[in-house]
User: Fold these one by one.
Assistant:
Number 1:
Amino acid sequence: MNSDHRIFLIILVNLVLSYFINQVNAILSAWSIYLVLDSFYLLFAGLYLRGAAGFITITVTAMAVEATLPFPSGIHLIIYIFSFLLLNQTRARSSRESPYQVMGLAFFINLTIFLFFTVSSGTLSLPSPALWLRLFSDLLLSQIVVIILVIPLINGQRHLLLSAGIDVGAEPQSI
Amino acid sequence: MNRSHTFIRPVVILLVLLAVWWIVPTFVKSFMRVSFFEMQAPFWTAASYIEDLQGYWVIRNHSKTELYEAGRDLARLNAAYQLRVQENDELKGEIIRLERLLNLPSHLAYRSEVARVVRRDLSGWWQQFILRKGRNYGISKGNAVVYAGGVVGRIKEVYAYTAVVELISSRSFRVAAKLEGDARPVTFQGNISLPLEGPSGKIVNVQSDIEVDPSNPRRLVTSSLGGVFPDGLTIGWTNRLGPSIDGLLQQGSVRLDQRLRSLKEVAVLVPIEETGGI
């Protein structure tokens, strides 16, 4: 099933997701809030795709997301691939059918990505209490949104692939 | 053995990828970055046009009375601005005459290029907009960006049909400024905005004899010394100054206009020399 090229629908889903996340952030900017929800791009690929399909999905998504942001080149690629490989490793040790384990993975991945971005953005060279408060509030809200929406999002992507005739849930979980 | 292979393999893959990314030439990375940006730009632009169309149909559904009242208010505002334009023309003529008399260099003239905002990224790490115009309209890196309330920021990157603006509320933004009524230059830089608070910045290198009344904030305006912004554009308001770290000068906080966060249209000031006098 993973060799079916329609799996690249997930790349399209990630790009659409990126657009909607940006629209939400544009609305929240009026209240100085910014949500980092990058784990949404990675969870499905990490838990259900394998081999070249997952790798290509993550690579294209990382390069598309990074192109618009003023991060050093390659940052998204490195952290996304690292997270994808981490998710692949946890497959044998967790159940992707268990919503609590999936939420836990999403929480941890999103936290790792947020901390990685904070360190690589260079903002820590000029720390201030206002910076910590702003980053903490953004992180807290992002993690809450991740926990609430990760399960419906993954189920939605599974149903999308099912409607295209691909049942990724029927494949063995381990690599 | 199999379990150790399973553990080591992803680490090896990651290290190989890091090595490949390290070796890849910079122009390849830049080319890929620009390519992915330009591939997505048409979708943002299309979404922006759809929003404009939505706005048009919303306005069309207003009653004639509402439209008449809005038109009347705008006509009054236009009349006031036309008077100011006439005064400005007189003042510009006077400046040109004095420049010739005193043999002074001319001020830089600008062409306004109005552009719609298609994307906003206002995080704690950076603050930027993406505009719907780029090199195709003569916009270049470093051009000033303004709006009705004053300064928006500076063009940071330019692509074929889009441009990225770094906002004045971004921590890495700095510009030469001065307090209204005082010609001595100070430095403005963007600052972190706390949740639910408006955009803000700070001024540094303020002379120790300058005073600000907390109940009557002083306007901070741009200085032409920076070479990017024309003189006198509003940046924000400051109502508090305190001693700087070295104790010789002062520094303070600057409150920026709330509208900065929700701008839909801005003007890029393109120097007329760059456009060959167009």
Number 2:
Amino acid sequence: MKLSERDIEKLTREGAGRLRARADDRRSLKAEALTGRIRKSIDKYLLRTNDEATAKDVAEFIDGLQADDLCLIVSCEAGDQNAWTELVERFSSTVRSAARSASSNEDAAEDLTQSIWAELHGLRRRADGGPAGKLSYYSGRGSLAGWLRAVVAQLAIDEHRKQSRLVQTEEDNELDRLVKDAPEGAFAVGTSATMYDPEETIARNVAGSELQDALACSIKELSDEDRLLVKLYYFDDLRLREAAALMGVHEATASRRLTRIHTELRRKVSAILIEQRGWTAAETERAFAEVAINLQTDVESMLQPVSIGKGIKSER
Amino acid sequence: MKQFENNEIEVLLRKLAETERAKSSRLLGEDSAEEHLDPDELSSFAEGRLPAATRSFYMAHLAACDRCRRIVAQLATASGASSAIREPAVEEQGRWTFLAKFFSPTVMRYAMPTLAVVVLAVAVFVWMQRESATKMALRQNAEPATQTVNKELNGALADRSSDSTPSSNNSVAPEPSEAHQAKADSARAAASKETAEARSAGTKSANAKPADAASSETAASTPTPAMQEVEVYAPPPPAKGEPETAKSVAQTTDEAEKKERTRTAPTEAANREEQAGDKSTAARRSAAASAGRISGLSVMEQKVAATRSVGGKNFQRIDNVWVDTVYTSSTPTMNISRGSEQYRALIGDEPGLRTIAEQLSGEIVVVWKGKAYRIR
């Protein structure tokens, strides 16, 4: 039975009292100061995906919040300078380390660190006079240290994009010019052996690109969990143990899933090539074998199927 | 083949990933209209702090959004949240996984039959222990009573012998009842014809002749030193309905006495035999005298004296035959003669039977492994 608004408010008040009791340092906070933040967290992470959440679910959710971190952040938001000082002292090393990981050099890391604290504190002021920073976005569900690292990572990406946009534009233009001015066949792909047979090389590259297209389409057809596992393991270069942990499963479970996914992808790719591209089963099997061998020996050859495809008739 | 095919897919996946990364690096400058997860959502997911339904919700976005997924991956790697996430999941599943493994069908498939065998073995062992304890208790109860009665019988014999003639005194010596019976058995074997006649005259019930009468008859035909000793076993138990009392015993002994007198030689002959120091005559007299005194024994003493326990089986003396107490007339019986090839083969195969045949002389009816054997 769906909880009423009244029930949720009651549960939130009770949960706030328990959370405050759990905190090692309550910082003179009253339970009412926490109810708003707790209610937001409940709405965001529990009720949005579970309409039938019970009172027990709500109570357990509140009891799983980080009491000390939440009290610290709420105190900072309330303008408690002692709390802010403590925040900086406790987490400055965490922020600096995350900034260093996300930056290419020490200066960039230092700039990023300063930007983070400014973002957290906020230059604007709220109506109540408190700083309007990003601290209000912390729900208390995860750890404060993890949240700070996520803030650093996002800000770093934003900064990098801004700078990269300017740099990439120039590089792309240069690349296009080089391609345009290059003699025919200068960007031929394939192994050194195949360079003596351009037609075969082109055919192989086309087959490879179609294979990869089919593979990309097949990946999109996987379930969210399977697709995430594939992306984490192959695209993000995580170790299987780390990917499994993010998925919330054991490493052995993830390994079994990957094996199943491989089989499923091969079946889907074959189906796409045969049904949509008009390939035969024999051609499909041969393409798998040949492309896999070529890919193992020539990494760069598979990065320019589009360029090559411009000058020849492509089945794509 | 499957592994090889999976390897091909693995290679293709890695190459596709490289291609995608190269593309995404060129696309970094482009603003994505896609809404991304905020840091709180990213960190909560990376640390495994979200409810299951919410995790599934965010999985869909992370599977499609490279940016958010890479941040989550970085958070997981940098903070070591992977181990923190993995440990609770494993820890929560640990208890249940252990139980599930313990009660998995694979384990139960072998554990249940093994458990059943163990339980059965324990039950059989306990039953056997009880059976042996019961048998021991029975033997212990029987032996003291037997010993007590034997002592009294010996005493009675001693008294009787003191009343008899000097020659008989010397001959009659207090011996255990088993010795008495053994000697009487040997005398009886020599006069098997007369015993057979006596047997045919009646059944194995109370109509059977008293042992002392048989012994006296035997003594009359084949005088042996054994005859001077009274076979002090009680008459066979009365048939159904017949009360087993001393009075009936006395009656049978009286009958035996009469027969004894009729069969005995004339007085002159008896005197001659006596003068010749014929122990058999003295034995007859003593037997006759004892027969009259047998009635002085208690019914229980007579009963116990006529039963023996050999080889874990109980036998009753019925009409000069040791009969297994579990024997019934409906049991198929095989006749075997002592010393025959069949007998040797039987006792060779069955050591238990050998023990019984050796300890019980004379004719034996024993039930062994569902079959009855009359060994004579």
Number 3:
Amino acid sequence: MNRQEREQEATADAVTLELIEPLPGFTEHRNFALVPLDDHGALWTLRATDGPGLSFLVASPQAFFPSYAPLIEDVTLSILDIRDERDLMLLVLVHPAAVRADSTANLLAPLVVNRRTQRGAQVVLDDTALSLRTSLDAA
Amino acid sequence: MLVLSRRVGESVMIGDDVVVTVLDVRGEVVRLGIAAPRRIAVHREELLAEITRANQESANPQADSVSALQQAVAHHGGNDEPHQPGS
């Protein structure tokens, strides 16, 4: 399969994500496609669909940080209409580097997503132990 | 920017729903109380600035760094099967 066919197939697998509040620093973009990058749901590309040239690498935190289980406030769950565990999905923004140990994830401000409604927001957690830049090797 | 002076105990109202009160002043540190509905996020400005900067650093990552991480994940495999969104 050539690269174009792979990208088309990847886009067909994509789901949409609508941010109810834009990402700090990127107030122009609300609508994204979430495209899987691997077969385990560990890595995704979050690509803006309402404007060219913006994408992020995001990860399912469980794939890299199995003990990451932050408290999501009731008001956040309520605003996103997250009714139970099955609705709730967390994604963390990843800053990849050539060396895995230098790649970091933002655990302090994950994307909290309702996978049923495909809407979400970046939420700053109220936990001073969490970091904006946690090494992917620091599980 | 609106500039006002307030004494300890005095307040500022922002819109219909947010009240900021000067609780006390000790030396150079001003303690503020903020009453706002829970739907309105209130953050230290420098924290929001840090999040903005972290987001900007993460935007449009280098393709070879993404590939390196993809390969590392493919070798390791995932943990439990995370649910696919929308399924």
